[in-house]
Amino acid sequence: MSQFGDGGLPGSKPYVSSGSYINRMSDYCSACAYSVQVRVGDKACPFNALYWDFLARHRDRLKGNHRLTMLYRTWDSQSSEDQAAVLTQAQKLLRQIV
Ligand code: SF4
């Protein structure tokens, strides 16, 4: 996200990730108390809900970025109930850190 603070001059998309990417790029998740594959609930990796919440909240600004097209398609393919659960999870997390 910091690399996108200028609107995308050096970085062509926000540097934001779900737990899956962190898991792929590190060995942190194997020893974590959270479940990297889970998006909602007490055991859910917080990066998952926060990732989708970020993309959903900034959709108007980011939807024209061709590197994010597949991500928004993935989000749009989810049921409205699943989307609402993820966004609610993100709001709970954000309330804990703000
Ligand atoms: S919070 Fe835990 S499960 Fe989620 S990305 Fe970090 S180490 Fe992995």
Task: Please explain how this structure is put together.
The structure is a single chain. The protein is mainly α. It has one domain (2-97): Deoxyribodipyrimidine photolyase-related (Arc Repressor Mutant, subunit A, Orthogonal Bundle). It is 50% helix and 0% strand. The protein is built from 5 helices and no strands. It has helices spanning 19-25, 46-57, 59-62, 69-76, 80-97. Helix 2 (46-57) crosses helix 5. It is globular, with a radius of gyration of 14 Å. The model has no long low-confidence stretch (mean pLDDT 91). The chain binds iron/sulfur cluster. Iron/sulfur cluster (SF4) binds at residues 19, 22-23, 28-29, 32, 34, 36, 45-47.
| Number of self-contained structural domains | 1
- The secondary-structure class comes to mainly alpha
Number of strands: 0
Distinct compounds present: iron/sulfur cluster
The CA-CA distance between the termini, in Å, is 18 Å
CA radius of gyration is: 14 Å
Strand content: under 5%
Major β-sheet annotation: none
Order of H and E elements: HHHHH
Q: Let me know the average pLDDT.
A: 91
CATH architectural designation: Orthogonal Bundle
Low-confidence stretches: none
Within CATH, the superfamily carries the name Deoxyribodipyrimidine photolyase-related
